[in-house]
Design brief:
Chain lengths: 261, 236
Amino acid sequence: MRRLTVWCATVSLGLFLAVAGPPARAVAGPPTRILVSAAASLKDALTNIGREFKRARPDLSVELNFGASGTLAVQIEQGAPVDVFVSASTEQMDELAAKNMLLAGTRVNLLQNRLVLIAPQGTSTVTSFGDLEHAQVRVVAMGDPRSVPAGAYAQQVLTALGIYDAVRRKTVLATDVRQVLAAVETGSADAGLVYATDAALSRRVRVVMEAPAGTHQPIVYPAAVLSASSRPDAARAFVLYLGSADAIAVFANYGFQPATR
Amino acid sequence: MSPDFSPIWVSLKTAFTATALVLVLGLAAAAWRLHRRSRLWELLDGALLLPLVLPPTVVGFFLLVLFGRTGPLGRLLWRFGVTVVFSWPATVIAATVVTFPLMYLIARGALEQVESSTLDAARTLGSSEWEVFLRVALPLAWPGILAGTVLAFARALGEFGATLMLAGNIPGRTETIPVAIFFAIEAGDTRHALGWAAVVLVISLATLAAMGAWTRYQRAYLVRGPVRAERSQRGA
């Protein structure tokens, strides 16, 4: 009987703790929360901009969700409560537009980027795209073309250079571009394809060369508010802020170029 | 794009290899554990059973630290020109490490169940410890060990977290079915994801059917087993 009492007490305590939360803060109304899904390559820049935005608009709270644009688009299509979507490729945005999931008039091209071939710092086996075919290069990291725009651009480059089929057998596919960067940083991969902005963040990789002009579609980052957003005004304000001079300056610090309007 | 069935072959190759390894290692560890009861073994037990309670991603992380370019084993193997990370053997290593505790526990349980009086009888009749193990204990514990092998195979087939971290996703080389499913879902490719899930379902159902058939056989074996053991001792 005593054991039963103890057990009941424990369960009750557990349920109580689960239901009761931390004490409510005495603030004049909670900030409006908007969820922003953005390409993984924007992580550092957007986190920075998010903080600036909070100072400009303390009544709004921005939650950032980073990942591969393809995966983020799938999440949105499956009903994730996202207010703003910033993609590393127009493809995902077009997909959502075709399904009428974008709020009219909110789509805008924000940034441009470049694709580069990288290798671990301190190695010299890879000096050009052609070197990727050599047997010495055991593993080449790239994003999964189906869900990672950086991977799709990489596939375009390798195909344009005529080496995709040869290199394909040794590509390790990652779920986002930062994973590719990590694989090359740790030396697990002998080379990788990432954005110039990602490469600039790490001292443990060296840029071998930029993808030759014309080998891939222009890398454009569009942003838009989703039609299912329950806070469209707040979402619009954030997208507008992303296009402001302050935000563009932050992006430029990380190596992003503003999109040609 | 033509359908790529390579994940099936990669998964089956990995699962069979890992199961074979785990069978040998698990049996060996269980046999030694029962043979030598020392403090050292009790401590070792904790380490050997760890992968069973750790999340597979944590196991994968530890393996990556161990076998990575800067890790102790990684650096050693690098001198021999061997890289484990992002290679097929990595899938086997991940599956083996994750499955070993399961096999070890089951083998230990199966061997412990064998009556020590039977083993002692064999010893009094002049059998060496090796013979006692191979010709008396093992045949008697076999039903349980085989069940453990089937479970180990199922676990090795379904291994994902540690595999993805250590072996990565190299289509045709390290892309196992669970990895293929995960990447298909990430890409919104529900058709392929469902396809692979169906394949795994078929294999799992086949495994369960095999286990069911085995259990029925086992009941008969348990009666025949001890008789067979006695007979071989009388003949020796």
